[in-house]
Amino acid sequence: MVDAMWGNGAGWFTRLLSGGKTEVIEIHNTRNPIFPEMKRPEPIPPNINVGLKATVDNKADVLLITDGDADRVGIGDENGVFVNQLQVFGLLAYYMLEVRKERGAIVKTLSTTSMLEKLGKLYDVPVYETGVGFKYVAPKMLETDALIGGEESGGYAFRGNVPERDGILGGLYFLDFMVRLNKKPSELLKILFDKVGSHYYDRIDSSFSGDRASREKAIMDAKPATIGGLKVTGLNSTDGFKFNLEDGGWLLIRFSGTEPIIRVYTETTHKDKVQAILQDGLKIAGL
């Protein structure tokens, strides 16, 4: 199942995979700048809920979602459950390292998964963390001849291709991953979690008013000992405020560069602490 989100991804998977045993069913595969049935063409819920339901209704093995310009890819599993962007990044890195047996650096923004550091240690490859955005990821990929690079938005780049996000190639690699291991997405995620442990992610975007600089100072001065009941082990203020936590997880508070919005993100190994971490993050941000 393919959800092209009324954008440039329409037709590509059908064209590339036709002529064999693979059946491709596309939805939202014509150009429509109004983007019906979704808030915006971003490959995350609730924009993809129609596609997730269609996956179950058609008994499809996987849902591939491309955003409006097809530089990002999202994944839904065979049960109509969204596989979040951090999980997909971990899965694609694992596929490159374990299945394809390739080696090379991993480049990640600070807003994406800590599973990559764990994979880096397991496979003895360096992992480089950058600011948010491919304007930071791409140069680091070129500098290090990186195997894969990516960010929290669902954009991934691969060695041998241009150092820029490519949703079509990312989707094709994911399909190859499924075929090589003869596994469906939920089974692949279990394999990854068996390797690096379960990781849970969520994000809240909140509007704010007033002076940004005073809020940034208040966040820097907060110095919380714990967040969500987990001990804070460090603070990275390279691009926003990333509080590292004792379980290897993190809380990131970051201001949008284009609108008065504060984004609060977390990834943790404790499923039951996700919302508590986010609520503490909102308090630290003065929201």
TrEMBL record:
<dbReference type="GO" id="GO:0004615">
    <property type="term" value="F:phosphomannomutase activity"/>
</dbReference>
<feature type="domain" description="Alpha-D-phosphohexomutase C-terminal">
    <location>
        <begin position="233"/>
        <end position="279"/>
    </location>
</feature>
<dbReference type="Pfam" id="PF02879">
    <property type="entry name" value="PGM_PMM_II"/>
</dbReference>
<feature type="domain" description="Alpha-D-phosphohexomutase alpha/beta/alpha">
    <location>
        <begin position="1"/>
        <end position="80"/>
    </location>
</feature>
<protein>
    <submittedName>
        <fullName>Putative phosphomannomutase</fullName>
        <ecNumber>5.4.2.8</ecNumber>
    </submittedName>
</protein>
<dbReference type="Pfam" id="PF00408">
    <property type="entry name" value="PGM_PMM_IV"/>
</dbReference>
<dbReference type="InterPro" id="IPR016055">
    <property type="entry name" value="A-D-PHexomutase_a/b/a-I/II/III"/>
</dbReference>
<keyword id="KW-0479">Metal-binding</keyword>
<dbReference type="InterPro" id="IPR036900">
    <property type="entry name" value="A-D-PHexomutase_C_sf"/>
</dbReference>
<dbReference type="GO" id="GO:0005975">
    <property type="term" value="P:carbohydrate metabolic process"/>
</dbReference>
<dbReference type="InterPro" id="IPR005846">
    <property type="entry name" value="A-D-PHexomutase_a/b/a-III"/>
</dbReference>
<keyword id="KW-0413">Isomerase</keyword>
<dbReference type="InterPro" id="IPR005843">
    <property type="entry name" value="A-D-PHexomutase_C"/>
</dbReference>
<keyword id="KW-0597">Phosphoprotein</keyword>
<dbReference type="InterPro" id="IPR005845">
    <property type="entry name" value="A-D-PHexomutase_a/b/a-II"/>
</dbReference>
<dbReference type="GO" id="GO:0046872">
    <property type="term" value="F:metal ion binding"/>
</dbReference>
<feature type="domain" description="Alpha-D-phosphohexomutase alpha/beta/alpha">
    <location>
        <begin position="87"/>
        <end position="194"/>
    </location>
</feature>
<keyword id="KW-0460">Magnesium</keyword>
<dbReference type="Pfam" id="PF02880">
    <property type="entry name" value="PGM_PMM_III"/>
</dbReference>
